[in-house]
Amino acid sequence: MVQKTYEANLETALSYLKNDQRKDAVSTMKRALAQVPEDEKLPENLAYLKILFFCARFAIEDTDERVAYYYIKEGIKTKKFYADFLFLDIFLAKLQHRYGDMLSSIIAYLISIDLPDRDMYSYDFVNADAINEVFTVYLPLAYNNTQNHAMILNVLNNTIEKVREFSTGENVSKAYDIMRSMDFKSN
């Protein structure tokens, strides 16, 4: 199989990153994104998803929230349960104080890391540190700043049942338990 130009540019950009050449990595990643044909912007195109993820990540690092939001939403539109886009969405929602959106992205992120195909994506933000940060920092912040806890818990409980049809649901269940515990402590 012949490597496509955008795949080669993705590899080059990643090499630049490993060598602390961020400026070259950013421009090469943007070039790679521009080279992806419309008919190849598909959920199974791992190179496209990774390119889009890095463009979003670079935009966040450059504090360009508008561009980051665009890339993140494009990524989620392409693959709904892609953990890295969801993690960036959590972070961006935190920066913008959109706590209801943040909570939704947290639940989607937790579902994504429970899916059986998660290992095929080589996620940057599916590791012990990132998951711990979601549970100890982002989840309490989002939940405490969101209204209607009873309704949220009810919806989440129903979601857990549906998630268990196609994954373990372990992390979503843990989030549910944490939120119930937070409500119990506040009463």
Mean pLDDT: 93
* Structural class assignment: mainly alpha
Helix amount, in percent? over 70%
SS element count, helices:
9
What gross morphology would you assign?
A: elongated
Structural summary, described in words:
With 187 residues, the chain is an all-alpha fold. Helices cover 73% and strands 0% of the residues. α2 packs across α3 (46-61), α4 packs antiparallel against α5 (83-95) and α5 (83-95) crosses α7. The longest helix is centred in the C-terminal third of the chain and has 17 residues, at 128-144. The protein is elongated and about 55 Å long.
Describe the structure concisely for a colleague.
This protein is an all-alpha fold and 187 residues long.
Provide key terms for this protein:
mainly alpha, single chain, 187 residues
Summarize the SSE layout with pairings.
Blueprint: H1 5-18, H2 22-35, H3 46-61, H4 65-78, H5 83-95, H6 99-114, H7 128-144, H8 149-163, H9 170-186
